[in-house]
Amino acid sequence: MACFYLLVAGLLEILWAFSMKKSAGFTQLTPTLITLVAMVASFGLLSMAMKTLPLGTAYTIWTGIGAVGAFVIGITVLGEAITPLRVIAALLIVAGIVTMKLSGGQ
């Protein structure tokens, strides 16, 4: 169950990052509210996952899902640049997540 909580927490991290961008510095009410609710839910689920998962593994996976997910949303939804170095950076994050998961713990 911890892995499920962690996955949902990571997806919520993508949501709050995107809605924070859309909030225009917290000047738009709806995206601001989505940001705050998604943040609280994401942190809550992360803390539940950390009851059984090692800190380093849980935090690395959570931030990795958020970082790569925000990168993909930035490109696909917000029209941000896709460059070879940005793609390599995202792939290195994914490689780090996989390596962390395979390195032990749960």
Automatic annotation (TrEMBL):
Any one GO BP annotation for this protein: xenobiotic detoxification by transmembrane export across the plasma membrane
Membrane spanning residue stretches: 27-46, 58-79, 85-104
Coiled-coil residue spans: none
Protein's UniProt keywords contain Transmembrane helix: yes
Membrane topology label: Multi-pass membrane protein
Pfam families, per database record: Multi_Drug_Res
Cellular localisation: Cell membrane
InterPro entries linked to this entry: EmrE-like, Small_drug/metabolite_transptr, Small_multidrug_res
MF annotations from Gene Ontology: transmembrane transporter activity
Originating organism: Paracoccus shanxieyensis
Official protein name in the record: Guanidinium exporter
Family: Belongs to the drug/metabolite transporter (DMT) superfamily. Small multidrug resistance (SMR) (TC 2.A.7.1) family. Gdx/SugE subfamily.
Annotated GO CC locations: plasma membrane
Keywords, alphabetical: Cell membrane, Membrane, Transmembrane, Transmembrane helix, Transport
Domain of life the protein comes from: Bacteria
